[in-house]
Design a protein that fits this description.
Elements: E1 4-9, H1 15-25, E2 29-35, H2 36-42, H3 45-51, E3 57-64, H4 68-79, E4 85-89, H5 94-103, E5 108-112, H6 120-125, H7 132-145, E6 150-152, H8 158-165, E7 170-173, H9 192-197, E8 202-205, H10 207-210, H11 215-233
Parallel strand pairs: 1-2, 1-8, 2-3, 3-4, 4-5, 5-6, 6-7, 7-8
Length: 237
């Protein structure tokens, strides 16, 4: 069966565990995600280790946020690793986003709107008033205007963002939790089926898969549920 549009977050304590998780889930998912902690601990070698012989797509989630020149230099530094996706913060502004896009023409630059760990109360304390959806839509429009080919938003905002940016932008949703699992440090969450039905293209799922007794079987089960949703909604998965 075709792998499901899931990016498994490999937030592992060591490189060997990350590589093992990757090998277990890659028959069932399209993508594995390397985050800041793992990349800073092991450096560029982590990409080859988790990519393995399967050649699975690697999502490099570094959330770059700096002045445009620095972000361009950082993007060029990781371009040789050929990640399928690299994240930058939409809050860095259009010039910064554009710098990343121009520095990595063969990688999909995904702009992070608002972190899924932030609640409405958190945002108010930061001076962001109104519903999170409004801020996410503003940042999404800004990022797409600057050339971002993908956006990262919570499942709660994905339908509104899809309506705002149209069908051609890839929407990536962290904060995805299968029914019955804890939300942990995520504040704005939804089930995989709901996020996919609302218009998400790539679901980021970490601990519900990697923290299970059998990550491969868990990934396979979530992938099967998404395939059922795709039949019901008429969307490919």
């Amino acid at each position: 069966m075709r792998p499901a549009p899931i990016a498994v977050a490999l937030d592992a304590p060591d490189l060997e565990t990350a590589a093992r998780w990757a090998s277990l889930v890659t028959p069932h998912v399209t993508t594995v995600k390397v985050g800041l902690e793992l990349y800073l601990r092991y450096g560029p070698d982590v990409i080859a280790s988790v990519r393995g012989a399967s050649g699975v797509r690697v999502f490099l989630d570094l959330k770059l946020h700096d002045i445009p020149n620095t972000v361009a230099g950082a993007a060029r530094a990781v371009a040789r690793l050929k990640p399928a996706i690299l994240t930058v913060h939409a809050g860095g502004g259009p010039a910064m986003i554009r710098a990343a896009v121009e520095a990595m023409p063969h990688t999909q630059i995904a702009a992070v709107t608002l972190l899924t760990s932030l609640s409405e109360a958190d945002l108010e304390r930061m001076g962001v008033n109104g519903p999170p959806e409004d801020a996410v839509r503003r940042l999404a429009t800004l990022a797409v205007g600057a050339g971002a080919q993908a956006l990262v938003c919570s499942p709660r905002e994905v339908a509104a963002v899809r309506a705002e940016v149209g069908p051609d932008i890839t929407l990536i949703t962290p904060g995805v939790r299968p029914a019955g699992t804890a939300s942990q440090d995520q504040a704005r969450v939804a089930t995989p089926e709901q996020a996919f039905a609302d218009g998400a293209d790539l679901l980021v799922i970490g601990r519900p898969i990697t923290g299970s007794a059998d990550p491969g079987a868990t990934a396979a089960g979530i992938a099967a549920a998404l395939r059922r949703t795709s039949v019901a909604t008429g969307r490919g998965a």
